Amino acid sequence: MEITSAEIKRWLFMANEKMQYNKDYLSELDQAIGDGDHGHNMARGFQETVESLKDDNEEDMGAVMKSAAMTLISKVGGASGPLYGTAFLKASDEWKGKQVVTAGEFAKGIEAAVEGIKTRGKAERGGKTLLDVWIPVLEYVQNQELVPTELTKTAKEAMEGTADMTAKKGRASYYGEKSTSHLDPGAYSSYLLFEALAEAVTKEEEG
Amino acid sequence: MKKLINDPDHVVDEMLDGIAAAHADVIRRLPGWNVLVRKDAPMIGKVGLVSGGGSGHEPAHAGFIGENMLDAAVAGEVFTSPAPDQILEAIKAVDSGNGVLLIVKNYSGDVMNFDMAAEMAAAEGIDTEQVVVKDDVAVENEEDRRGVAGTILVHKIVGTAVEEGLNLQEAAELAHQVSGSMKSMGVSLQPSTVPASGKPGFTLAEDEMELGTGIHGEPGMERKKLKSADAITEELLEKVMAELEVSSGDETAVLVNGQGSTPLMELYIMYRKAEEILTENNISVKKAMVGEYMTSLEMAGCSFTLLKLDSTLNKYLP
Contact A77/B115, CB-based, under 8 Å? Predict the structure, then answer.
């Protein structure tokens, strides 16, 4: 399976729809173990991202991702801006100059993104962060043919798994043991992002 | 929510315009950016000092722009770190070729955004150094300690020192020294409400207090029945003194910081007891600061910061 720059753009537009729709829920999750603004910040960042891509005829996947990265970095703020922004920026490097990527090249982009998040956030798997969704998704795209429903399932189960973890990073870590049993807001927004990706590639197949 | 605002989405922008208008003799706003700088920035021959973070902590940080203090302050959304491009603009506006010291409070968002800004500044040929302030002893693990009111003492001491000609490396070393010589801890009685969310960040019963609450309402060490000012002062100061390892004969600076809606009357009542305790332990107070320095919107409560002085710090603390 190949992924095209049109699909990448559709991914970002669908991610924006999901962030807008789930804005209050994400903030509610964040209210429990953070400062309650995650939905607000993600919705603002993705809204600006699609605004800047709307009239852009860019077909270079790397350039699309880089533009999204820069918008997320400057518009999301907080901890999520640098984390999502760095992830997109690292992926953009891998996809630079390409209008279409193979499954393997796509996985390379996600791998670079995961490395970027780890370095920027000084975090590892199991710390109840967005990495706990990104790493299982990476392992899925590295090892299996991308089946949209399976991708969504992988991301969803990984997100749900954060409820059993105790936060080690960010504001949630101040809650210590009390953070356990809550879903991580960053993991939830990452799940929405990959659900959007699954839907973006599904639509292409139908069309 | 009962607030004097026009639109929750515009609070930061409108506040920055207000600050710039009210203090036009000292401060100007970089057009199009959430950055306030010293009117005469960049100061030729001097290391630039930049701090910043989420809004809602006023007067931190813009209120500390001026001679012997900061050259610029970057304002994020309420309780949300500013983005790297904003921080970069501040760095560019105050760099006179001598480099810029970034004073950052230890929150993951602030640390990451300032890191990215420093990388972007390096790409533009501007030297920066960073100090990450971690004075809140309510968090056990030292590396995870939050930056709270003590940050103001870093502004003050390093601000004076760079005005007297310290270079970037020396300024960074001094900032690390100040940061490592102070500890803080607070108590909160009532939560604050972020305008965009409209709901209090946490809840406390009428007769309850929380020890060690963070400046954004992060959970503290424990909740218990409200006690007298003297008893709370004893409890907070005991923890701070133990963590700082102060002993008989030491000289200190003390900061009693109001969190936003606690009257000065109460802050002075707390200070009175604090000085009594320090005196009993033969610890002298060279400088006392009592007031609102690092607020948390309308949170009620206060924090104590104790800074242990030595000859170097004494030199730059008027």
Answer: no
Band (pLDDT 50/70/90 cuts) for residue A56 is confident
- Preferred mutation among A30, A37, A41, A182 to probe B, highest tally of B CBs within 10 A: A37
Domain ranges of chain B: 8-180, 182-316
ipTM strictly over 0.85?
yes
The CATH number, out of the four listed (3.10.310.40, 3.40.50.2300, 3.40.50.10440, 3.40.640.10), of the domain defined by the range B8-180: 3.40.50.10440
pLDDT in tens, B95-128: 999 999 999 999 999 999 999 999 999 999 999 9
B80 touches chain A (CB under 8 A): yes
Query: Is residue B155 annotated as part of the catalytic site, yes or no?
Result: no
Interchain contact, A41 vs B82, CB within 8 Å: no
CATH number of B182-316: 3.30.1180.20
* Helix and strand element counts for chain B (H, E): 8, 12
Which of A:129-188 have CB within 8 Å of B? 169-171, 173-175, 178
Select from A27, A52, A174, A184 the residue whose CB has the most chain B CBs within 10 Å, as the one to mutate to test that interface.
A174
B57 is catalytic: yes
How close A62 comes to chain B (CA, Å)? 20
CATH classification at residue A42: 1.25.40.340
Instruction: Give pLDDT tens digits for A111-153.
Output: 999 999 999 999 999 999 999 999 999 999 999 999 999 999 9
Q: DSSP secondary structure string, chain A?
A: --EEHHHHHHHHHHHHHHHHHTHHHHHHHHHHHS-S-HHHHHHHHHHHHHHHHHT-----HHHHHHHHHHHHHHHT-TTHHHHHHHHHHHHHHHTTT-SEE-HHHHHHHHHHHHHHHHHHHT--TTSSSTHHHHHHHHHHHHHS---HHHHHHHHHHHHHHGGGS---STGGGGGGGGGTTSPPHHHHHHHHHHHHHHHHHHHHHH-
In Å, how far is B310's CA from the nearest CA of chain A?
32
Q: Is A90 on the interface with B (CB under 8 A)?
A: no
pTM above 0.90, yes or no: yes
* CB atoms A174 and B79 under 8 Å: no
Is B257 part of the contact surface with chain A (CB cutoff 8 Å)? no
Tally of domains in chain A: 1
d(CA A104, CA B173): 47
What domain range is A30 assigned to?
Answer: 3-206
